[in-house]
Write a structure and sequence with these properties.
The chain is mainly beta. The chain has one helix and eleven strands.
Length: about 170
């Protein structure tokens, strides 16, 4: 986790993880046949203003628009949503992404990186502030990305939240 301070507020970047606090599994190239949630959970005593989500997908081969990484189109997709303190979806976001191009449809800032040899990557910057405002998480609320398909064929898949912690 990286940190910086601006006007008494702490800027941070943290990987979404299975534990919600940056610990546990952070590489989302998992078998989501049984859904696996990666999350950023706000701890007690503070709240988070989540400005953006950085998505990274690395794989071998061609990363075509219709595929997810170099896999085919996903059956169930990757679900991005906000959960309340009880773990229930709040209705914020609620996007299901099934291909590389779906990220561009929702986030716009999406790039495919072809290095000529070796692995290729897709990187996405989803700036919530660009849509009007940050996602505000109160204690025990979470930004959640749920993997619902088998993504074990990907080389790497990760999600990094950039946010301001407010006391």
């Amino acid at each position: 986790m990286s940190k910086g301070t601006t006007y008494g507020r702490t800027m941070q970047s943290q990987a979404l993880s299975t534990n919600g606090d940056g610990t546990g599994t952070v590489n989302a190239n998992v078998d989501g046949g049984t859904p696996v949630a990666f999350k950023l959970t706000c701890p007690a005593g503070v709240h988070y203003e989540v400005a953006r989500l950085i998505v990274y997908i690395e794989d071998t081969g061609n990363l075509l628009a219709a595929n997810y990484g170099a896999l085919g189109v996903l059956t169930n997709g990757v679900l991005v949503e906000v959960h309340d303190a009880s773990g229930n979806p709040t209705g914020q976001l609620g996007h299901t992404l099934k291909s590389n191009s779906h990220w561009a449809k929702v986030c716009h800032d999406s790039s495919a990186h072809d290095y000529g040899s070796g692995n290729n990557a897709v990187s996405v910057r989803w700036t919530f502030q660009a849509a009007g405002e940050s996602i505000n998480l109160m204690p025990s609320e979470s930004l959640v990305v749920t993997i619902q398909d088998d993504l074990q064929g990907l080389v790497e898949h990760s999600f990094i939240a950039q946010f301001v912690q407010v006391r």
